[in-house]
Every structure is written in structure tokens, then in C-alpha cells.
Amino acid sequence: MAALWRGRHRWKRTNCLQVLTRNLTGKYDYDLVVIGGGSGGLACSKEAAQLGQKVAVLDYVEPSVKGTKWGIGGTCVNVGCIPKKLMHQAALLGTAVKDAKKYGWQISEPICHDWSTMADAVQNHVRSLNWGHRVQLQDKKVKYLNIKGSLLDENTVKGLTKAGKETILTAKNIVIATGGRPKYPTNIPGAVEHGITSDDIFWLKKSPGKTLVVGASYVALECAGFLTGIGLDTTVMVRSIALRGFDQQMAGLVTDYMEAYGTKFAWECVPKRVDKLSSGVLQVTWMDNRTGDEHKDTYDSVLWAVGRAPETKALGLDKLGVQLDKETGKIVVGADESTSVPNIYAFGDIGEGRPELTPTAIKAGKLLARRLARHSAELMNYDSVPTTVFTPLEYGCVGLSEEEAEKRLGKDGIEVYHAFYKPLEFTVAERDASQCYLKVVCARDDDQKILGLHFTGPNAGEVTQGFALGLQCGATYSHLLQTVGIHPTCAEELTKVNITKRSGLDATVTGC
């Protein structure tokens, strides 16, 4: 009995402070404590537990400014990839219904969309994922604590419950995977009081109605795209360029398609104030930077998509000397995800220079867990990470943009193969395929190694995922031509691309 007692935790209560101690079983309470229960943090904690580590994961979601709350799983599960893709699918189905008439389906008019039905279904699926994550943690013997974590030193974490009770945990290693949250502009009257962000849009019980989306990031365009697709009057306000950091030719094709699709764009415009009128609608005043003129219009909702801020302020990092990037506020990390303080690691969106993508966080988290458990020395490879923007016409890419390739190798150092193609599905439906395009950016040498691959069209994510493997294996243009395409598909056009931009020849694909 005494031996059994020695192997267990016991709790000591000192005033309002709960201190977790261990009796004669080791120096620390845990081998690993992970702060952040998003995709990366969960992956890291579960991997470490499977490798025999004693692990705790702390997760606490501060409600959004509008009071929106959600469960474990982080941005991707609750207010990102998952609900976004499902609402994108809802919009694609609306387009498919229109196409169906051309294919012989007899569909009675009018066709309308019900927000509450979609939102309830999406939210129920998200809740099922929250539950699934908790079950997985339990099955893998990871201690889950719904408390807000901060650091006291390189081996000690303080947890704070919603009720204000404190818990102290010690660990050999501490991992920070707290991600980021959407930003509100701080210099626009009414922005916070009357606006929403991507933390709120997926949890609205009622339709957002006529919506102004401010910003032109992939989050902005994806939200504007599905709102347009389900029949809502939607405007995107763009200060400068769309999809900063992405290939700009491809970005132009994406926004051109969206404009044809029905999304309105206010280019080179900046909002000045948001006022709520007595009728309940929101009046937005903005400036057109091209003309200097001021404009006003009314909307039911204003969605701010002007960037994200890392969740670092409440972690106590400054007291420990954890180095942060002065511009972004993100944690400066090494190739092994280490910070400037021993035993403290950080990865995912919180890491400076890291892609803000769920799959990279998951993979980086697993690899970090293996290294900390001394099971592997493998580092995360952040080169040629594929991604897709789920706009009405999807855009998938992997590797370098044309601009970045040219910057690195010079205009004469690259060869760009490209093609405009028409998906077979678009033909009978008589849909415009002007923006369906692909390009392969290669080094202009004997091997013609593929540096970047870009594709706009249906199922872009599915297409890009397969070709991403090729880039990881050092694929060349000749490898691409040696690959037999699957007919008839959009992806096969990449195996046939043969017109270079340098040639100036028409890149439109003819025939089947």
C-alpha cells in the first residue's frame, strides 16, 4: 500500500494555491507540459505520451470580444480549417445546383440557402471533434487541464482556472503551442464594438446578412467566397494587394474569378469608422486612396480579417527572457524549435518565420516530441510546404512563387511553364474557365528542378497534395513529362504543360 501511495500524485492546498507534488518518483511532476491544445499541441502531447513520457496539456480559450467560446482543438478545429471547409462546401453545392440544370436535373425555383441549418450542422460536427480530442487524450494517458498556463521558470508552469484557482506543475521540458488570434484595428472608431472576426463568423446563429470583409488575406477571401456562394451580398475591402506572400499572378486570378462570381471588391480603400444606426445596421465610412474621396454604405455585418496576433502576452515570457521578434511578437526559435531559454520550446503559429498552417504544426509537434524523448534527431523540414486557398476557385501551391524564384535566381535563371485549361465539368455547365490556370516554375539549367507549382481550379488541394511529394523528392521538369496523366482530370494538365512564358506562345490548352 505504501508503494502504491508513493507512485501517485497528491494535492497540497495552501490558501488559494494548489501545488502538485510527487513523492519519491522523480524530480519533476511531468516529463513534458504542453501549453496550448490546438492541433500542434495535441499532436505533440499524444506523441510524447506514446513514447513513454508523462505528459500534461493545458488548454484554455479566452472568449472572443463578442463572447464566442469553443472547446479543445484550437483554431483549425473550431474557428478555422474545419468549419471554413464545410461552409466552402456549402457554397460549392450552390454552384453545383446551378450546374445541375444544364446536366438535365429538373430543379424548381427559387433556390435559397438557410444559414441556421448549415451553422447547426457545422457546429455539431465541431463539437464532436472537441469530444473526440478529449477521448484521445484520455486513451493515450495525457493529462488534460482546462486552465490558462503561464511560465514561472524554465521548469515550472502556473495554471489558472476560470474560477481563479492556481495550480503549479513542474516539467523537465515545456512546450508552447498557443497559436494566435485575429486582430482588430486599433485606430478605427467602432471597429471593436460593431465588428466580428473569424473567431465569430462560424458560430453565428443567424445569417450575417450583407457583409463587408475588411482585409485580403486568405482568411478574408475564403470567408467572402463562401458568403457570396450562399447568396449573401459581400464586399471585400482591400488596402493594397490580395494574398500577400502568395504568387501575385495567381492571386489576381483568384480575385478576378471572385468578382465574376459576384463578390464585390473595394480596391485601395481603407475604413475610417463604423457606426451603428438606429435601425440596427452598420454604417461604414471609408476612404478611396486612389481618389481621396470618402464613401459610406451600410452593412449587416463587418468582418475584420486584418491579420493575427500571437498568443504570447499572458505567458510570462518577458520575465524569463524568452526572446520575441520585435515586429511580430512571435517567439524566436531555432531549427529544433528551441527558444532562448533552456528546456522551453515553441512551434506552430507562435514561432517566428513558421508557416501558419495546421499540418506543419502537427508534424513539427510530433518531431519535437520524438527528439525530446530521445527517439529521433529528425528536424522539421519547412521547405516546399503545400497549401490551398479555399476560395470559390481554389488555389493550390507548393514551393516558390514566381516572384521569389526570380528574386533568388534572376529572371534568366528560371523557366516558367504554364497553361490555361478548361475543366471538363465546366463545359456542359457553360461555366467560364478564364481563370483556370497552372504554372510550373523551374530552375533554368540542365536538370530543370521544379522550384514551385501553382494551380487554380476545382479540387486544388487534392491536386497539389500529390505533386507536393514530387517536390520533396527533388522532381524535375523531365520527371513531370515522364508522368502519365489520369484522363480526364484537371491534374493531368500539369503532366502535359509545355509552353514557356519566355516563348510568348498562346498557353491555352486545346482539345481534350
Map the helices and strands.
Layout: H1 2-6, E1 9-14, E2 17-22, E3 30-35, H2 39-50, E4 55-58, H3 74-79, H4 81-102, H5 115-139, E5 143-145, E6 148-153, E7 156-160, E8 166-176, E9 180-182, H6 191-194, H7 198-201, E10 211-214, H8 218-229, E11 234-238, H9 248-261, E12 264-267, E13 269-276, E14 282-288, E15 294-299, E16 301-304, E17 308-310, H10 317-320, E18 344-346, H11 358-372, E19 387-389, E20 395-399, H12 402-409, E21 414-420, H13 424-429, E22 437-443, E23 450-456, H14 460-472, H15 477-482, H16 493-496, E24 499-500
Parallel strand pairs: 2-8, 3-4, 3-8, 4-5, 8-18, 10-11, 10-16, 11-12
Antiparallel strand pairs: 1-2, 6-7, 7-8, 9-17, 13-14, 14-15, 19-20, 20-23, 21-22, 21-24, 22-23
